[in-house]
Design brief:
The complex is a heterodimer of chains A (273) and B (870).
Chain A (H helix, E strand, L loop, with lengths): L22 H33 L27 H38 L4 E9 L2 E5 L5 E2 L2 E4 L3 E8 L4 E5 L4 E5 L5 E6 L4 E7 L12 E6 L1 H10 L40
Parallel strand pairs in A: 1-5, 4-10
Antiparallel strand pairs in A: 1-2, 2-3, 5-8, 6-7, 6-9, 9-10
Helix pairs in contact in A: 1-2
Chain B lengths: L2 H4 L15 H6 L3 H29 L10 H36 L7 H21 L25 H30 L12 H32 L10 H36 L6 H14 L15 H29 L8 H24 L1 H7 L3 H30 L5 H24 L15 H31 L30 E3 L6 E3 L1 H7 L56 H10 L10 H17 L6 H22 L20 H31 L1 H8 L7 H25 L3 H30 L16 H32 L9 H26 L1
Antiparallel strand pairs in B: 1-2
Helix pairs in contact in B: 3-4, 3-5, 3-15, 4-6, 4-8, 4-13, 5-6, 5-18, 6-7, 6-18, 6-20, 7-8, 7-9, 7-20, 8-11, 8-13, 9-10, 10-11, 11-13, 11-14, 13-14, 14-15, 18-19, 20-24, 20-25, 22-23, 22-25, 23-24, 24-25
Classes of the chains: A alpha+beta (273), B mainly alpha (870).
């Protein structure tokens, strides 16, 4: 958390932006803390519950609290007392929850504010537009090139502007811990920094029709040099290719590179019958 | 309908058949019968939704396994969610609510028994409508959240998709009728001395649930009506700029309170069972109740936490993060309250207690995993994954666990026989293990995208365990069904109170309770439940209090309880004479009349009117609704659908006329705790609550219009989408017409006060004519706009032209439909007025109608500036 809202790493531009704490790191560190605390609280509370259930079980031969007044048929409801203890435990639980959430709020500010801050500090950022359609993804790079799989350089901040050409989708790369709704007629943003090269899978996280389960694609995180080479090779290829990315076509087994689907579904559906 | 006309000759039957008769179950309006019907029907939908879930679990045995096609899987996912959330959990809870709440509060029945029956039949037939959708080219396949624009016909062209929308509309109608009924009952018919704060925990939870239902479901109704219009008449809403987000707002404004609507009744049952089986009163009961009230209120301000990734700004995210955390805190208190209740108890591990304790543990896990989602940065990643699936199943099915506690808790009361304790415990064991094997591994496999049948290989083990758990959970219900069937037949007979520490009033009557619940009048006036003899009361009272007779301030019995039937009938079904039917029919429109003072007095002189318990019309209306909606779903395809629509329409008319003309006597309690509505008759309170939900409905429509207009640019809208021909003048004329008609209703009321039959007839007729004038003027205006031909709108400006025309026609059309309903009511009232009805103290019907009519008028005062001036 020490970097949350911390100083920008403006001088790291040439060396890439690996100094930026990626959303994946933010998520993982918080998740671990939540898991630990959540398990602890759960175990304590449930054990305490079961302990009491056992301890005060009904026994014919002995009554642990013979002096207690028991509820009677037809009485107007009354409280069983012990309000003080109730509020004490309530206070403790509220304190845990509140401090946890306030703590994560700093991270939220960090994740939300980072792109603007990076821009201000002149950090090199790659902007890619992501377009969801039934049932695939289209990525548009600053030079106008379009692809069906996402290629990004490692250690570079990548800014995604996500939208949809038809219905509500959600673009997410689970291993990089980013996700963004793809809503027709509007753009949402998310960003990430991938530290390690490799191939990741991206999924659709909002039900969008028959091909929803297969609406995946690949994300290639490349060495910056290799990326640069590939990127320069895409100049003027925005209209290349006419292959439609089929919904049934799982990216895991699909061709390594698919060019932009030329025959996309019509952009907006009018409701006029 | 004069009193003379109302006499006798009603085939609908005041013969009340015994329980063994099939006919009984079609005509009954008794809350206990309807409670049983609800419970059984809900269990049927549980099985249906459960089978769909098992199909999904089989599909998920390995990544991409396929016993279902991709389309079928989506249908299974969507239908499972919709059936379980709408047709199982809440109706299941309302089975108990129907059976138990009147008993707990000391009422003979619900305030409007026939409305209750109608609510049940609408529920059942809406479920059958849903089932029909599977056979109409496939059911709705866009998830239970029904996100836009996948839900519009462009992407969902099959008739089944439309049918589901209509089924949901019918379901909401059932819910709204139920809410109005329960609110009126619980505010107006409590036993003497039972203050609101003294409501038993289960009744308290139902009270808060129906309050939430009243408003939340109205918002859903707005969304569904718009969606239905989009399917049937081609309006443009959810397919336009901003339409996608509009749906999420409308849906989640309903959807989040829905979580508590589902959970609260279970919480109430858990609280009852904890107190009964620990032999220890609920710790901090007052705070428990207060926490529930807080949650009910806050539930309406957390909906946008379902939308953290939709690009809403940081300020709103922060605000909704805060409200979300805020709503989780009261639950902490409730959980601790239940835990501390066990301390110094004498806990008996009966089946209902095991299910309650199990529900508490599941809810603790559900709550903790929910805190993860409250942290927005984590929520970003959990969205659309199995974390969410696992979490809400822990909460919602955890809630259902509490409801199963209710099955065993009240089974002896409902049947008079004890369930088999060993089989009950076996059910719990299988259920609890199966539940956790099913849902806990989903936390392990949380990276699986939701509603997807393909997943990364390493998650396979988790999914296999979950599938095994799913089948175990399913199998546990075979044990339950066997146990219940067996025990109904041969279970040990039980007395009034099989549980040592049961405190609430249902345990003070026989098992099962008599038809009208209590021997004698239940009262808490002495600080403890007692039953007063009826004759004593009758002797005590002199004359009749008339509608809503108020108990005197000291809670004394000055106004008599003569209306409650004196000769108690057993449940076995005895011919209930309709007596003089002097108390007028109580029906659902303003044409309905509360037992009129004169009528009741007349009855008093001759013989006491019995409460009626049988009416076939609710069933007829439910069936008619089914036929109509099924017809409408495919009416664009013509053919058989026309016939269905037509016959449904005719049957509806028959049903409503039959209902309105049927003499049906429902006594209002004359001695009852009615704070804070002592001076409001049942019908009026019912009308108020109904109008309150109608306010939210119109709010949904107006809010949608404003939202879309802002999304499209406020002024751009006016310039680009609205033709010059859309002028202010017709709207202005209509404003005057409606204002004048409201004034005419007031004059009618004055005339009724003065006993002027001619005045009443004249005033109502003028009202009617002004209303008709309103419609004609609107028709002319619309006709003109439909057929304009300008450069911008060469083909006219009709409902489907653009988003502005759609919002205009649909919103003002909904208002127009309200006007039509009002005119139909008047067409019923005017002939009655000619025969001398509504005079003197009998003007309440005009007052109820006036309430409705003024409301419709006020709505127009909002619509006029919004759609004509701005």
């Amino acid at each position: 958390m020490e970097e949350a809202g911390g100083p920008a790493v403006g001088d790291a531009v040439l060396a890439g932006t690996s100094g930026i704490r990626a959303p994946a790191e933010v998520f993982n560190s918080i998740f671990v803390v939540f898991l630990g605390l959540g398990t602890l609280v759960g175990v304590v509370v449930i054990s305490y519950t079961l302990y009491n259930a056992y301890k005060y079980r009904y026994r014919e031969d002995e009554d642990p609290a013979p002096e207690m007044e028991r509820p009677e048929l037809g009485e107007l409801p009354e409280s069983g007392g012990k309000g003080k203890k109730l509020f004490l435990s309530f206070g403790i639980s509220a304190l845990i929850v509140l401090s946890l959430v306030i703590w994560t709020y700093a991270s939220l500010l960090y994740v939300e504010g980072k792109p603007a801050e990076a821009q201000q500090n002149g950090v090199e950022v790659l902007d890619v537009e992501v377009d969801g359609f039934r049932f695939g993804w289209q990525f548009t790079y600053p030079n106008g090139a379009q692809t069906a799989e996402l290629r990004v350089p490692a250690d570079r901040m990548v800014n995604l502007s996500v939208t949809s050409q038809d219905v509500f989708h959600n673009f997410g790369i689970p291993e990089l811990r980013i996700k963004s709704d793809a809503i027709p007629g509007q753009t949402t943003n998310t960003w990430f920094v991938a530290e390690e090269t490799g191939t990741y899978q991206a999924n659709c996280y909002e039900i969008c029709g028959e091909g929803h389960s297969g609406m995946t694609t690949k994300v290639h995180v490349m060495e910056p040099e290799a990326y640069q080479e590939w990127y320069e090779g895409t100049e003027g290829t925005e209209s290349a290719g006419n292959e439609t990315a089929g919904g049934e076509d799982h990216a895991l087994t699909g061709p390594d590179e698919r060019d932009a689907p030329g025959a996309l579904v019509p952009a907006r559906a009018g409701g006029v019958p | 309908m004069s009193h003379g006309e109302a006499d006798g000759h009603d085939a609908g039957g005041h013969d009340f058949p015994p329980m063994s008769s099939v006919k009984r179950w079609f005509v009954t309006t008794n809350h206990k019968d309807i409670g049983i019907l609800y419970t059984i029907t809900a269990l049927f939908f549980l099985v249906l939704g459960g089978v769909l879930a098992l199909l999904m679990r089989v599909q998920l045995w390995g990544p991409g396994e396929s016993i279902l096609s991709a389309g079928a899987y989506n249908q299974a996912v969507s239908a499972h969610g919709l059936l379980m959330v709408f047709w199982f959990i809440s109706p299941f809870a309302f089975g108990f609510a129907n059976y138990v709440v009147p008993l707990q509060i000391g009422a003979d029945d619900l305030a409007f028994p026939r409305l209750n029956a109608m609510s049940y039949w609408a529920y059942l037939f809406s479920g059958l409508l849903f089932i029909a959708s599977f056979f109409q080219g496939g059911t709705f396949d866009g998830g239970w959240t029904m996100y836009a624009p996948l839900n519009v016909p462009t992407y969902m062209p099959n008739v089944g998709g439309t049918t589901v929308v209509l089924a949901l509309i019918m379901f909401v109608a059932a819910v709204t009728m139920g809410s109005v009924n329960f609110l009126t009952t619980m505010y107006r018919m409590r036993a003497e001395g039972l203050r609101m704060r003294d409501l038993p925990m289960f009744s308290m939870s139902i009270l808060l649930t129906v309050w939430m239902m009243l408003f939340a479901f109205a918002a859903l109704l707005a969304a569904l009506l718009i969606l239905g219009a989009q399917h049937l008449i081609g309006v443009n809403y959810f397919n336009t700029d901003g339409g996608t987000l509009l749906w999420t707002h409308l849906f989640w404004f309903f959807g989040h309170p829905e979580v508590y609507i589902v959970f609260f009744p279970a919480l109430g049952i858990m609280a009852e069972c904890f107190q009964t089986f620990t032999g220890h009163r609920i710790v901090g009961r007052k705070w428990f109740v207060l926490a529930m009230v807080l949650v009910a209120l806050q539930s309406f301000v957390v909906w946008m936490h379902h939308m953290f990734l939709t690009g809403i700004n940081l300020e709103i995210k922060t605000l909704f993060m805060v409200t979300t955390i805020g709503i989780s805190l009261p639950f902490d208190l409730m959980v601790f309250s239940l835990i501390y209740t066990m301390i110094k108890g004498r806990i008996r591990f009966t089946t209902p207690f095991l299910f309650s304790l199990g529900a508490l543990i599941l809810f603790i896990i559900g709550g903790i995993t929910g805190v993860f989602l409250g942290a927005v940065v984590l929520d970003y990643e959990f969205r659309g994954t199995y974390w969410v699936v696992a979490h809400f199943h822990y909460v919602m099915v955890g809630g259902a666990t509490g409801l199963f506690a209710g099955v065993y808790y009240w089974f002896p009361k409902m049947t008079g026989r004890m369930y088999d304790e060993f089989l009950g415990k076996l059910h719990f064991g299988l259920y609890f293990v199966g539940f956790n094997l099913l849902y806990f591994p989903m936390f392990g496999a949380w990276e699986t995208p939701r509603r997807v049948f393909d997943y990364a290989l390493p998650l396979g083990t988790w999914h296999k365990v979950a599938t095994i758990g799913g089948f175990l959970l399913g199998a546990s219900f075979l044990v339950m069904f066997y146990n219940l069937f067996k025990s109904v037949a041969v279970g040990e007979e039980v007395g009034d109170n099989p549980w040592e520490y049961g405190t609430t009033a249902e345990w003070a009557v026989s098992s099962p309770p008599p038809l009208e619940n209590f021997e004698g009048k239940p009262s808490y006036a002495s600080g403890k439940l007692s039953f007063r003899d009826e004759p004593e009361l009758t002797a005590d009272g002199s004359g009749d209090g008339g509608p809503g007779g108020n108990p005197s301030p000291d809670g004394g019995l000055a106004s008599s309880a003569s209306e409650s039937s004196s000769d108690r009938r057993s449940d076995g079904g005895v011919r209930a004479e309709s007596a003089t039917a002097g108390g007028e029919a109580l029906v659902t429109g303003p044409e309905a009349v509360a037992p009129s003072a004169t009528g009741a007095a007349a009855a008093h002189e001759t013989e006491e009117p019995h409460a009626d318990h049988a009416s076939i019309w609710p069933f007829v209306i439910g069936l008619a609704g089914f036929l109509t909606f099924l017809g409408v779903s495919g009416v664009q395809n013509g053919g058989a659908y026309y016939w269905l629509t037509g016959s449904g329409g005719v049957l509806s008319a028959v049903g409503f006329v039959g209902l309105a003309r049927e003499p049906f006597h429902v006594p209002e309690p004359t001695v009852a705790e009615q704070w804070p509505f002592e001076g409001v008759e049942n019908m009026k309170l019912g009308m108020w609550t109904f109008l309150a939900s109608d306010v939210v409905l119109f709010g949904g429509f107006i809010g949608s219009y404003l939202f879309l207009r802002v999304a499209n640019g406020w002024t751009h809208w006016h310039h680009a989408f609205v033709p010059e021909a859309h002028v202010t003048f017709p709207g202005l004329v209509n404003t005057y017409l409606l204002l004048a008609s409201s004034f005419a209703v007031v004059l009618g009321l004055v005339a009724a006060h003065r006993n002027s039959r001619r005045g009443v007839v004249a005033a109502l007729s003028v009202t009617w004519l002004l209303g008709v004038g309103f419609l004609i003027n609107k028709g002319l205006e619309w006709q003109h706009l439909f057929h304009i031909s300008t450069e911008a709108f060469p083909n006219g400006w009709n409902v489907g032209t653009n988003v502005a025309s759609s919002t205009f026609y649909l919103t003002t059309g909904l208002h127009g439909a309200h006007v039509v309903v009002g005119l139909v009511m008047l067409m019923y009232m005017i002939p009655r007025a000619m025969n001398g009805a509504y005079l003197g103290d009998d003007e309440t019907s005009i007052e109820y109608f006036g309430l409705y009519w003024h409301f419709v008028d006020i709505v127009w005062l909002f619509l006029f500036p919004l759609f004509y001036i701005l």
